[in-house]
C-alpha cells in the first residue's frame, strides 16, 4: 500500500470531538518516501508557507537549509542522522535543516520565543506539504554537532530539527522493522490538555 492511500483523517476522526479543518487530521509523519528529488518549485512553495508563520515582534527567526536528494549535500547531511532515521530518510526528496535565531537581529537581545516561532513555521511547512500531496517527517534524531558543521550553522542559531520531505511511497519498500509503525498516531484526549482558568487539576 502507498502511504497516500492511508486516510489518516478517518483513522483519527472521533465523532465526539469538535470538528476541525481536515488538514489537521490528515497530516501525519510517514516514513515511506519515493527517492524522488523535490523540485525547486516544490521547495519554494514549502518555504513560502513557512514564511507566513507568526512570530514575536515579527522577528521571523527561522531559516531553512534545503538539500535535495541525489546531491552531495543531501548525502553529507544524511550521515548525521541516527541509524534509525537513516534507514528510511534515504527515500526523502529533500532534507531540510530548520534553524532558529536565538537573538533578535535588531538588538542582539535573547529571543525568548524563537523556538516557539520556528515551531510554528515548521508546522506551516508540514501542512503545506500535506496539501501538496507530499509527506514531511520531523527528526530530532541526528548528531547536532556534526549537522551544524555540515550546514555551516552560525553560533547564534539553534538547529532543533531536520525535516525529511518527500513523495509518498509504498509501505513495503520500507525496511521490515518500520512497516508496522507506518500508521497515523493518536493523541491524548482533550480533557487531559484543556483546562479552564488554571492548571490546579494538572497532574505532575
Ligand atoms: C521535533 C520533532 C522531532 C522528531 N524526531 C523524530 C525522529 O528523530 N525520528 C522519527 O522517526 N520521528 C521523529 N518525529 C516524528 C514524531 O514521532 C511524530 O511527529 C509523532 O509521533 C506524531 O505523529 P504524527 O506526526 O504522524 O502525527 C519527530 C517529530 C518532531 C515534531
Could you characterize what this model shows?
- With about 200 residues, the chain is α+β, with helices and mostly antiparallel strands.
- The protein has one domain: NADH Oxidase (3-Layer(aba) Sandwich), CATH 3.40.109.
- Helix content is about 30%, strand content about 15%.
- It is built from eight helices and four strands, in the order αααβααβαβαβα.
- It has helices at about 10, 20-25, 40-50, 70-80, 85-90, 115-130, 145-150, 175-180, and strands at about 60-70, 95-100, 135-140, 155-165.
- A four-stranded antiparallel beta sheet has the order 1-2-4-3, with helices on both faces.
- Helix 3 (about 40-50) crosses helix 6 (about 115-130).
- It is globular, with a radius of gyration of 18 Å.
- The termini are far apart.
- Flavin mononucleotide binds near residues 138, 161 and 185.
Any idea how many domains? 1
Q: Overall mean pLDDT score?
A: 96
Give the strand tally: 4
User: What quaternary form is this?
Assistant: single chain
What is the CATH domain class? Alpha Beta
Largest sheet: 4 strands, antiparallel
Category by helix and strand content: alpha+beta
Amino-to-carboxy terminus distance: 41 Å
Q: State the strand order across the main sheet.
A: 1-2-4-3
Which ligands accompany this protein?
A: flavin mononucleotide
What is the string of helix and strand elements?
HHHEHHEHEHEH
Our Rg estimate from Cα atoms comes to 18 Å
Helix content: 25-40%
Give the CA-based shape.
globular
